[in-house]
Design a protein that fits this description.
Elements: H1 12-22, H2 31-44, E1 48-52, H3 55-65, E2 73-77, H4 82-89, E3 94-98, H5 109-115, E4 120-126, H6 135-145, E5 149-152, E6 160-161, E7 164-165, E8 172-176, E9 189-193, H7 199-206, H8 212-216, H9 236-247, H10 249-266, H11 268-274, E10 293-295, H12 299-311, H13 327-333, H14 340-348, E11 349-351, H15 360-374
Parallel strand pairs: 2-3, 2-4, 4-5, 5-8
Antiparallel strand pairs: 1-9, 6-7, 8-9, 10-11
The structure holds pyridoxal-5'-phosphate (PLP).
Length: 376
């Protein structure tokens, strides 16, 4: 069996978890959480890094920090994970779904420009497969109206836009360390904050609406309830696991890149003969090897490919289902707009196995499995 994904344990994870326990403090903001915060701020230039229990949590914090109110419009790509939209729906926002680009699943900036109104309170972009959206164009549209841009950088660790780390460009960004991402802690996330004026309140929201962080720094003599919030901070056990992964980030990234490039190289001629499309990395973006996907010519071909691979014990999977066609959204405020690119990626995108422990034999099995299924 070749699974789609397999969580990777380097070894120091268990050592650091034991250290966290031995330190006598395994609740939030312990020794390893601080190490992770320092790592992200030093390596990616985030003004403030705050670990959360998930990317979903980080997005919910962002929505609270932006003071999203009932009826506010938030522009979000339809081809994304539920949490990107749900975090804003929890604040009462009206979601305005935008289509993808024609040739890659990132949000189409021209579509964003058409959808902006005086009610727009945020634009959320998703760097799909860790490949940067067209951030200069999106920032130009947003800045003209003073609208904050949030990056859903769940898949985008260690990836760059014109040399700038993803997660450092929007006012805030949300990362995920879910076991399906490049760097993992089981469940886990990060809110990066690039607008200094949001930092103080972010600490409060993350600590159940209390000024506990200020109290521990000795800035106030008692702590109490000062704002809304929730319990968004992870246990130091999670941070211990994460820190061990960050220490071997380059090892993990190099291996993932090797797998990604092997696929890309071997599928060039297949793409020419079958019309199957390969991932595109625009000139402004890097590729962090989060995902390798193919775009089939139609849904029947994708189903055939997934079934054929399954017969050989290879687990390839499709991805998001357009949120504008989801049961929840349809029952609420479906505005009837068609988003054809989003639907095409919903129907035709297929992701191939890609995980640290994949051997060259595994990689070759997937490659020949795909070729056998598509050349007939
Ligand atoms: C994985 C993912 C999320 C959710 O991350 P969690 O850490 O599981 O909450 C959100 N958005 C995108 C684009 C993702 O890929």
């Amino acid at each position: 069996m070749i699974p789609f994904n397999k969580p990777y344990l380097h070894g120091r994870e268990l050592v650091y978890i034991a250290q966290a326990v031995a330190s006598g403090k395994i609740s939030g903001d312990g020794m390893f959480t601080k190490k992770c915060h320092d790592y992200f701020e030093a390596n990616y230039g985030f003004k403030k890094a705050l670990l959360t229990t998930s990317c979903t949590d980080a997005l919910e914090m962002a929505a609270i920090l932006l003071n999203i109110q009932p009826g506010d419009e938030v522009i979000i790509p339809s081809f994304t994970f539920v949490s990107t939209a749900n975090a804003f729906v929890l604040r009462g926002a009206k979601i305005i779904f935008a289509d993808c680009c024609e040739d890659n699943p990132n949000i189409d900036p021209e579509e964003v420009e058409r959808l902006v109104t005086n009610q727009t309170k945020a634009i959320v972009v998703v760097h799909y497969a860790g490949v940067a959206c067209d951030m200069d164009r999106i920032n130009e549209i947003a800045q003209a109206k003073g609208i904050p841009v949030i990056e859903d950088a769940a898949q985008a660790i260690d990836s760059f836009y014109k040399g700038r780390p993803l997660g450092s460009i929007g006012v805030m960004a949300a990362f995920s360390f879910h076991e399906t991402k490049n760097i993992i802690s089981g469940e886990g996330g990060l809110l990066s904050i690039n607008d200094e004026s949001l930092i103080n309140r972010a600490e409060i929201i993350r600590e159940k609406g209390t000024n506990r962080s200020s109290f521990f720094r000795g800035e106030v003599d008692k702590y109490g309830w000062v704002d809304i919030g929730s319990s968004f901070l992870p246990s130091d056990i999670i941070a211990a696991y994460l820190y061990a992964q960050l220490e071997v980030k380059d090892l993990i990234q190099n291996k993932r890149m090797h797998i990604w490039k092997s696929y890309m190289h071997e599928f060039q001629s297949l793409s020419k003969t079958t019309g199957i499309k390969l991932p595109k990395t625009p000139a402004w973006a890097t590729n962090n090897a989060h995902m390798f996907y193919l775009i089939t010519n139609n849904i029947e071909q994708r189903t055939h490919l997934i079934d054929q691979l399954k017969n050989k014990g290879i687990n390839a999977v499709f991805h998001y289902q357009s949120l504008h066609k989801s049961p929840y959204f349809r029952s609420k405020n479906d505005d009837g707009r068609e988003l054809p690119n989003s639907d095409r990626f919903t129907n035709c995108l297929v992701r191939l196995p890609l995980y640290y422990e994949m051997s060259d034999t595994d990689i070759n099995s997937v490659i020949s499995g795909v070729q056998d299924a598509l050349i007939y």
